[in-house]
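Students often ask what a 'structure token' actually looks like in practice. Rather than answer in the abstract, let us consider YdhG-like domain-containing protein, a protein of 268 residues. Its sequence is given first.
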Amino acid sequence: MSDYPYNFDAKIVKYGFGKIVFSVVYVPKEITSQLDFSKSKRLRIDGEIEGIRIEAALIPTKGKWYLMVARKLQKLCGVSLGDRVSVSFDIADQDAITVPMELQFALEANDVAREVWDGWTAGKRRGFCYRVDSAKMVATRERRVEETIDFLLSEKHKQMTDADKARLIERLDSLVMAAIPKATKVPKYGGTLYTLKPEEKEAQFCGLFAYKEHVKLSFAQGTSIEDPDGLLEGGGKFRRHLTFNSSDCVDVKVVKRFVKAAAKLGAG
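Now compare that with the structural description of the same chain:
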């Protein structure tokens, strides 16, 4: 018998749009109806699929929630698309972060870097953890740990200048327009909004805003964007954002992926 409070069986099915397709299991309504989505439509969970330990997220889509079942996990479970699997889970600490061992050791060895790290938001720390953890080669992981520590140390002594912000905004703007060439830019709320429907007052799908120490790329329907790695920040009903305080921390693929997903939602 499972030690987790929520348990169900479901079939692994395809979900996605266009060329982007995921393997997922949908969580039954009798379970999601028991969960508290008042603070966030996406909830991080700890659990098991076919007895294999997982740390994942319940992701919303059209009034339902699903769990992603990546190919690597399917292989570990000995299952494939179309198979039924047993899922057990509990709601995790929404701010909890699994820090890769190499990065944890490096942080413990450097008090200055650790101080900056502890001051970051959960979403920002999770993004750097993902960057380290996604590397398959040991040498790559070690290099990314070193880069993270160097970045933390530079943050301790660096505050963004207006020129830094301008360059960062220019870079992010170019990525948004490269991802969605037909987008229209609208100056508003002290920043720049992007829309595919300029004739509609509130049809923007994302926006760029500069703050004292960082720049935010905000997504109007952020809670509906697929974010299995928990990179988006924010606790509002709909909006989510990515935070940047240097051009060096801009992941082009991640930015374009989120922008394209946001634009698709905005065009719906």
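One point worth highlighting: The first strand starts at residue 6 and ends at 11. Ask yourself how you might have guessed this from the sequence alone, and why that guess would often be unreliable.
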